[in-house]
Write a structure and sequence with these properties.
By secondary structure, the chain is α/β, with parallel strands linked by helices. The protein has two domains: about 60 residues, 2,3-Dihydroxybiphenyl 1,2-Dioxygenase, domain 1, CATH 3.10.180; about 60 residues, 2,3-Dihydroxybiphenyl 1,2-Dioxygenase, domain 1 (Roll). Helices cover about 20% and strands about 35% of the residues. It is built from three helices and eight strands; from the N terminus they run βαβββαβαβββ. The strands form two sheets. It has a four-stranded mixed β-sheet. The chain is globular.
Length: about 140
Amino acid sequence: MAKIPALCSLVPNMMVHSVETSVQFYQKTLGFEQVMTVPESAPYDWAMLKQGEVTLMLQKVDSFSEEVPKFKDQEPSASLTLYMITDSVDTLYAHLQKTKVKILKEPHKTFYRMKEIAIEDPDGYTLVFAEACEDEN
């Protein structure tokens, strides 16, 4: 059997109503930087953003459903969470409280020894931010 090549990274491509609105949200709320857009000036069909080691792609509904026809009659959002590791859930939480972001779950410790917070982006995607903690108490 042939050896399966190593996977190097996972970059979600998220279907959104407005690339501009989503880019603004990720930049202002979470400090992402715009890496690339198509076209180069607004209105955009697609954008790539980066913050630390996390990369996201955002693609407008019509462009996305043209590329992946099975999404033609679907709304943005997903039955998954985008789980991102941070160095301080508490600092991020303090920052998020000053914004209009919808907080889905306040900071909490889990049985698997992570401290987490969950928020929702403008298209309904659930973003979870986590850091390792000593115990669940």
